[in-house]
Design a protein that fits this description.
464 residues, alpha/beta, 5-stranded mixed sheet, two-stranded antiparallel ribbon, elongated
Length: 464
């Protein structure tokens, strides 16, 4: 019998254990599957087959002639299924050649989502056997029982040499008492493997141990065998809460007990205006290039729309890289202990100068290749600048003012960004050239360099 055939047979037996019962087995229905397994072991020719009064099934496949001196090995799995959900009248659904997408459980209409169970993607092309959603499937651990029985049959059929092989099927694993009455004096394996859970090719050599308790928890259910990085450590949560509380209290002390100042107070701050005006220059540079860059390339270098499209892809692609790289570099320098104020000011000064130099070189570019190079470098630096400015509201604002300060900065930047394309259009119209428009961008780049001199990131606005 094939392993999947055995699984479909075994899951038809209702073997749910009962966590309210202190007897072993906790439910008499587990004997139904126990009797079936006892008979199958006898039919396969195993010796010392027995079903105990406590629903433990044992059997021995004696060593092949000449292998009696080899260490005896055991294989164990449990017959019961978890009481968390019904295990009665199981209706498996079989999915041949699985396509790797979410799995519809047709009985309930629920889905096994790849986003919740990423390992599903690794099973693409294989046959899945799942519940229909109205009950547990019971593969924990009837899949293990099926694998052991099929392996024993294969060893016998193919006459594979072996030492003594002990088989053990237990009740009540799901309620924590499956090993309580396991008879090690009868089950004489030198070592044994529990066939239950984990992934193909993986052997777990540790197990968890726990005492029982009844608690009510608000959260989501996970299995201990696959819960790493999905649950929150209570000590870690306590540490985070304490750190946030201390930070909140220190901010209150620094600002005279306040966590909000209101926008008018920021309008009187040189730090605020250094940030806002620097960001306005950044946004003007960005909107100007974004709106007029394609037209500039087309008109000055006489290239078709396909060439312009490819050029813009390269230029703005460099900007995307600059965003990630810039944010990463600023964070790394701060993590290494460099003064935040100096890091930001030196970075913006250097980037502003680099942007200005790129614009100067662009005004002299004789070929479209050079123009793309200069604009790409400028865009890389410019988006690095953007990543730097967007970290400032949280750094200079009181706790409850971050949103309004960031909104004010963005509002002013967008006003500048709205005006600049119009201004560039007027310059090009009246001069018949892009030269002075490029010089305007150069001026915005210098603004990015100079205005942040007013910013003090080591002291929040309103701090005493």
């Amino acid at each position: 019998m094939r392993v999947e055939e055995r699984l479909l047979k075994y899951v038809s037996y209702w073997t749910t254990s009962d966590e309210e019962c202190r007897q072993i087995p906790s439910s008499e229905r587990q004997f139904e599957l126990g009797k079936v397994l006892e008979q199958e072991l006898r039919d396969l020719g195993l010796e010392k087959v027995t079903l105990t009064d406590h629903c433990y099934v044992y059997g021995l496949l004696p060593a092949t002639k000449g292998y009696a001196d080899k260490p005896a090995v055991g294989f164990i799995s449990h017959m019961d299924t978890a009481p968390d959900f019904s295990g009665k009248d199981v209706k498996p659904q079989i999915i041949p050649d699985y396509d790797g997408n979410d799995v519809l459980l047709k009985g309930s209409g629920a889905y096994l989502k790849v986003s919740d169970f990423p390992t599903l993607k690794t099973l693409k092309g294989r046959t899945l056997i799942t519940t229909d959603g109205t009950t547990l499937l019971g593969a924990d651990d009837k899949a293990g029982v099926s694998e052991i029985m099929t392996a024993v049959e294969q060893i016998i059929t193919e006459k594979i040499p072996h030492g003594d092989i002990w088989i053990g099927f237990t009740p009540d694993e799901e309620v924590g008492s499956g090993a309580d009455l396991f008879d090690l004096d009868y089950f004489k394996a030198r070592f044994a493997y529990t066939v239950d859970g984990d992934y193909e090719g993986e052997v777990a050599y540790e197990n968890f141990n726990a005492a029982g308790a009844k608690v009510k928890i608000k959260g989501f259910s996970v299995h201990p065998g696959s819960s790493k990085n999905t649950m929150i450590n209570a000590a870690e949560r306590e540490y985070i809460d304490k750190a946030l509380k201390e930070e909140y209290e220190s901010e209150q002390m620094a600002s005279g007990g306040r966590t909000s100042l209101g926008l008018p107070r920021y309008l009187r701050s040189l730090t605020f205006w250094g940030m806002v005006l620097g960001f306005v220059c950044y946004d003007c540079f960005w909107y100007g290039l974004m709106t007029w860059g394609p037209m500039y390339l087309s008109q000055v270098f006489k290239v078709n729309i396909m060439t312009v499209g490819g050029s813009i892809f390269i230029i703005f692609g460099c900007g995307v890289i600059g965003s990630f790289f810039g944010g990463y570099m600023i964070d790394m320098l701060r993590i290494k202990g460099y003064d935040s104020n100096k890091v930001v000011k030196y970075a913006l000064a250097g980037l502003g100068i680099a942007m200005a130099l790129s614009m100067y070189l662009l005004s002299t570019a004789a070929t479209i290749t050079l123009a793309i190079v200069y604009m790409s470098f400028a865009m890389f630096c410019e988006k690095w600048v953007g990543a730097t400015f967007w970290m400032m509201p949280a750094a200079i604002s009181q706790k409850d003012d971050v949103g309004i300060v960031a909104g004010a900065m963005n509002f002013m930047g967008n006003i500048g960004g709205t005006i600049v394309p119009i201004l560039v259009g007027l310059i090009v119209t009246f001069t018949g050239s892009y030269y002075w428009a490029i010089i305007l961008f150069l001026a915005f780049a210098l603004g990015v360099c100079l205005f942040p001199i007013w910013i003090n990131m080591n002291k929040k606005v309103g701090a005493q």
